[in-house]
Amino acid sequence: MTPAPDARHSADLAGSADASGSTEQGGSVDPVDDERWLVVDGRRWRRQDPALPEDVARRLLSHLGRGRSGVRALRAAGEDAAPARRRVDLAKHGLGERGTPWWEQSPAERRARWADALQVLDGLDPPDDKPRD
Questions:
Q1: Distance CA 123, CA 119 (A)
Q2: Is the dihedral of CA 36, 39, 44, 48 positive or negative?
Q3: Is 5 helix (H, G, I), strand (E, B) or coil?
Q4: How far apart (Å, rounded) are the C-alpha atoms in residues 23 and 44?
Q5: DSSP 28-70
Q6: What is the DSSP letter of 3?
Q7: CB atoms within 10 A of CB 33
Q8: Lowest-pLDDT range of 51-60, 83-92, 99-108, 124-133
Q9: Are 21 and 28 in contact (CB under 8 A)?
Q10: Mean pLDDT value across residues 124-130
Q11: What is the pLDDT of residues 28-47, one digit of tens each?
């Protein structure tokens, strides 16, 4: 997940919310913000696009997991992890966790974002290595 790019979205400024929606500082969490951000250890991370069809989300998450695994394996072997990091980045863009925020995109732009990411990601696998859905 991608941290918020500017300090106005910092969980430190807003306080962290409990299950009731109230914050440590006595305010409440905006329900829209709750749909857009996940707070972990006081840090905000962008959530994946809720408009992703289930099969698309599953494919993108598969690419994300394979990319993360590849980064670990390549780093452990002392090799350049850039190709695996590219897979992670593309998957996160497709999920809406990086790039233009999904809530600022039209439905057509959102569909194009994930379709373009999947086209590139699927092309990274040799034909006999493609995952089966």
A1: 6
A2: negative
A3: coil
A4: 14
A5: B--HHHHHHEEEETTEEEEPPPTTS-HHHHHHHHHHHHHHHHH
A6: B
A7: 13
A8: 124-133
A9: yes
A10: 73
A11: 445 556 787 778 888 888 88
- What region, left, alpha or beta, does residue 42 occupy, with left being phi > 0 and alpha being psi -120 to 50 degrees? left
Residue 42 CB neighbours (<10 A): 12
Longest dimension (CA), the chain: 56
Q: Tell me the three state secondary structure of residue 27.
A: coil
Residue 12 CB contacts under 8 Å (≥ 6 apart), including other chains: 42
Distance in angstroms (rounded) separating the CA atoms of residues 37 and 9: 9
Q: Which two tokens stand for residue 23?
A: 């914050």
Centroid of chain to Cα 74: 22
Please name the amino acid found at residue 114.
W
Query: Do residues 67 and 125 lie in contact, with contact meaning Cβ atoms separated by under 8 Å?
Result: no
Residues in the chain: 133
Token reading at 19: 């299950």
Residue 70 pLDDT grade (very low, low, confident, very high; cuts 50, 70, 90): very high
Amino acid letter, residue 36: R
